[in-house]
Amino acid sequence: MNVTVRKIGNSEGIIIPKEVLERLGVKAGDELTLTEDNGQLTLVPQNADLAEQLRAASIGMGKYRVALRELAK
């Protein structure tokens, strides 16, 4: 499937066909992770649950920073 890079405001982007978005379960406003490897781009829907878990873990690690540092010894 071919897509064209288009000018969108001050940026550039691509339009992902509706059929592809439906197959992936992605809708407007969802976040995707973009990776580049050897000249290939990969878009992967971001797992909202994982993002929430990482945010909670970050808060917990900050709150218990001293205890975690002691446990790590």
UniProtKB/TrEMBL annotation:
Alphabetized SUPFAM superfamilies for the sequence: AbrB/MazE/MraZ-like (SSF89447)
Spell out the InterPro entries in the cross-references.
Doc_partner, SpoVT-AbrB_dom, SpoVT-AbrB_sf
Q: Which PROSITE patterns match?
A: SPOVT_ABRB (PS51740)
Q: Which residues form the signal peptide?
A: none
Tell me the ranges covered by the SpoVT-AbrB domain, including all copies. 3-48
Q: Which UniProt keywords apply?
A: DNA-binding
- Gene Ontology molecular-function annotations: DNA binding
Which superkingdom does the taxonomy of this entry point to? Bacteria
Annotated protein name in UniProt:
AbrB/MazE/SpoVT family DNA-binding domain-containing protein
Species this chain originates from: Mycoplana rhizolycopersici
